[in-house]
Amino acid sequence: MTRLLDVQDLRVEFRTRDGIAEAVGGVSYGVDAGRTLAVLGESGSGKSVTAQAIMGILDSPPGRVTGGRVLFRGRDLLTMSARERRRIRGAAMAMIFQDALSALNPVLPVGAQLAEMYQVHRGMSGKDARRRAVELMDRVRIPAAGQRAGDYPHQFSGGMRQRIMIAMAMALEPDLIIADEPTTALDVTVQAQVMDLLAELRREYAMGLVLITHDLGVVADVADTIAVMYAGRIVETAPVRDLYRRPAHPYTRGLLDSVPRVDGPGARRNDRGEPAGRGESAGRGDRARRNRRGHRGGRLYAIKGAPPSPLALPSGCPFHPRCPRAQEICRGERPPLYEVTAAAASPASGGRTSACHFWKDELDGLDV
Q1: Of 354, 358, 346, the residue nearest 270 (C-alpha)
Q2: Where in the cell is it found (predicted)?
Q3: Which of 89, 120, 132, 223 has its CA 20 to 30 A from that of 266?
Q4: Of the ranges 101-105, 192-196, 335-339, 343-347, which is most confident?
């Protein structure tokens, strides 16, 4: 069966005064209809640039796609004409931007911006398009939608603006939505509401969702699969529960260990990554993680150093200058995406990869 979105060895570079910056260096991932792929990584890892290249909105110059394929329902978006891609954007695939205030037109009422989608892509009259816009605002739970359709973006709170962005993306019921940090700068309660809304709409319309974020807590309950990016590359992919329970790359483990824990230093975890009940014991990997994670009253773990510049990526594994497991091979040989076998991970694992020479040791939780 053809995947909804299949990104194959995508490469993007930026030509700058200081040289050529390789922002995306061979990214491959995919998502099926009705499923959610979460793309994790620190700022600057290439998550948003990858999304912009998929959508065809990359600023060029200075950015340009130098290789790879982006297949949407089997058709390569990169070989389409600009006119063909415009027909697909909005109607078949849409994007939710992280800064709704900048993404929305400040001099047009939000209702007019939503109605424009129906007028341009569906040929509706102004009256019918406005009616559909109000229905859509009500669908994303904006109170008094009929009255607020005439308001401007600056008259809405951050959470309400993000709902309008979601409404705009959902207007034409696309098959795929790419959500780029949709909960940035929102408080925790509003974050949960926005993520619940996205999950509900995904189920209702059976669409594919690519969720870009650096917040591990945001994706735990909504993602099916996670792809972890570092220095413009995928370093690990796994089903969400497998990745949270037993990461197979030291960078992923560092991200997980950096999350504050409130369940106490003696808390145990079962095979689902949940607090273990009476009679359950923690494994060797759980003990190793516990020793490094920031529990209540303890010191919060942080990955040492900083992400590398795309203008001067390290030789070998890009993560080796910050990696506690780094060995000589890591400095001279870039690891491919190894397939993590089910036997080494868990009986239910499938489709797992790790770009680490020592992924087996990482799964075992051994300290090197």
Answers
A1: 346
A2: Cell membrane
A3: 223
A4: 335-339
Pick from 281, 286, 366: nearest CA to 325: 366
Q: Where do the domains of the chain lie, and which CATH numbers do they carry?
A: 5-107+152-223 (3.40.50.300), 228-364 (3.40.50.300)
pLDDT value at position 345?
A: 46
Mean pLDDT score across all residues of the chain: 85
Strands 233-239 and 353-354: antiparallel
CA–CA separation, 302 and 186 (whole Å): 23
Q: Which helix (H) or strand (E) holds 197?
A: helix 188-205
Listing DSSP states for 288-355 in one string gives HHHHHS--TTSPPP---S-PPPTTSPPSSSTTGGG-TT--HHHHH-----EEPPHHHH-TT--S-EE-
State the pLDDT at residue 281. 36
Structure tokens at 69: 């394929």
Measured between alpha carbons, how far is 210 from 149 in angstroms, rounded to an integer?
A: 28
Return the minimum-mean-pLDDT range out of 22-31, 178-187, 241-250, 273-282. Answer: 273-282
pLDDT, tens digit (0-9, with 9 covering 90-100), for 256-272: 988 876 664 434 444 43
Please report where in the chains the tokens 């795309």 appear, as a residue: 310
Q: How far is Cα 144 from Cα 153, in angstroms, rounded to an integer?
A: 15
Is residue 321 reached through a cis peptide bond, with omega within 30 degrees of 0 on the bond before it?
no
